[in-house]
Design a protein that fits this description.
Layout (H helix, E strand, L loop, with lengths): L4 H18 L3 E4 L7 E4 L2 E4 L5 E2 L1 H19 L4 H30 L5 E4 L5 H29 L1
Antiparallel strand pairs: 1-2, 1-5, 2-3, 3-4
Helix pairs in contact: 1-2, 1-4, 2-3, 3-4
Length: 151
């Protein structure tokens, strides 16, 4: 399970997405003291006003992190693992679309200076890692089928 390189790739993806769940992705400052705001996967938290919940974004990131761990645990079912890798790539593209959409929405808010965190790049890094994991799974499937032909 752990000795396969795709397990390492998928564990790194899970760790990156878990970090995204618990850290702010952007901070918004204003010249008025005490009016700062924060953007994370669970919402936009404005000071002295209503928060904007983004529950779907948080659930999507959490689901992608859980799916990457589930793929690691399915090491004996390689074809299912490969299909779930493709599903994870689609989920990560969805996370990236959410990030771009809400990042643009935050960037256009007047009276706020937005400082984006480098953590916004984690889904961009997770997509190629998931692709590399799917390539390694394909190689495993080919290797196992070659052993079956030898018997």
């Amino acid at each position: 399970m752990i000795q396969r390189i795709q397990s390492l790739y998928l564990m790194v993806v899970a760790v990156m997405l878990t970090i995204m769940l618990f850290t702010p992705l952007a901070t918004m400052t204003t010249p008025i003291p005490g009016q700062d705001a924060m953007f994370d996967v669970w919402g936009i938290h404005l000071a002295h006003s209503q928060d904007v919940p983004l529950i779907y974004f948080g659930v999507l990131v959490g689901l992608a992190a859980a799916l990457s761990l589930a793929i690691v645990m399915l090491y004996k079912k390689r074809k299912v693992q490969l299909q779930l890798c493709y599903a994870l790539e689609i989920l990560l593209i969805g996370v990236l679309v959410f990030e771009i959409f809400y990042g643009y929405q935050i960037y256009t808010i007047e009276d706020y200076t937005t400082d984006f965190s480098p953590l916004l790049l984690l889904p961009v890094l997770a997509i190629p890692l998931t692709w590399l994991a799917s390539r390694a799974i394909i190689k495993d499937i080919a290797l196992v089928s070659s052993y079956d032909r030898m018997r």
